Known about the structure:
This protein is mainly α. It has 17 helices and six strands.
Amino acid sequence: MKNFNYILKTLVLAVTVATIVSCGEGEPMLDTPESYAFFRDGQSTVSFTGQTTRMAMATELIDAMGDLDVESELLLEMFRNATESGGDADPFQSTELNVATKSIFSKVAASQDYFSSNSVESARIRADFEGWITAQVRETHSNAQQLAQPGVSGQIADGSSVRYVSGDGLEYNQAVAKSLIGALMLDQMLNNYLSTSVLDAGNQRADNDNAITVEGKSYTTMEHKWDEAYGYLYGLSSTPAEPLVTLGSDDAFLNKYVGRVEGDVDFEGIAARIQDAFKLGRAAIVARDYDLRDKQAKILRDELSTVIGVRCVYYLQQAKRALSGGDFGGAFHDLSEAYGFIYSLRFTREADGPFADREEVDRYLAELTAGNGFWEVSAETLDRISADIADKYDFTIAQAAE
């Protein structure tokens, strides 16, 4: 029944974006554009430079976390980019990033819908990231020559690779990388820029109706907000107007995993549905069809949230297989990725809330790290968490596991 429901949902979403949609009786029909390219008076109205900058910062941060000689202060400065508080003046390899006024920290757990009135949880989430960053150096790098064992951080073999794990078996760099997909990219997309509370804030609908652009820019504020959501998925694409050409290889964050889920035959077509919803929603803003815009935003919430759920189950099941074969290094790597994707569940969106709230996410993570953590997590625990997550999304473990 779940498989049938998922197929039915897929067909409904496909029809939504593929069918020619009426903007109103007697008015021109609105098609899904061929590419994400929009112009006003001959100038492009698409801009998402802030998103590209933050993803480039996140890329450098994750790369630097793998350097055994790096200091935690440098890593924290890459996260905060707040040199006025005494941090490293040039934490990045890129000169452009060093002079940028953006930061990863400022947009983590910072969406209008989820955190504007919840500063306590926002601070807690940011503290989690800083704790993982600090622990990478304090625990794993400082003990890099020690063989990891239950309760003792160090190195562990994973095929031809060497992983550096905590006493629980967690790779902190993987926790940061995969949790940023939710806490930065997904939260800003689904709970901020695609939210009506942001798109329609103040006079933005009236300004968009009258094509009143941001001072010195070619776009309206509403157009720009939609583009900023787009940028968190395609901001590092070499062909951002037609990003499916290189999907999955443009960054190590959400783009990569939309590509991975697209590669699963049970979810094939999800990438096109996401891209079509982005294009049609942007076209609807230009056409001032806000009902159609909001329908596309819902599609994006559903599909992008599904990517997170699928990858949670995928990594939990991959880890179960590795553990059954005694491959602790491979299992710990899969479980570390699962840890980050489970953390990202908190930022998914269905209706007015996430597919899994903070309490559920905390419970899943506590079950994974109980006792000696990954060293002794059971197959039953991995199956139980997998089933719980799959049930929330209405797909099966078998669909997500391959």
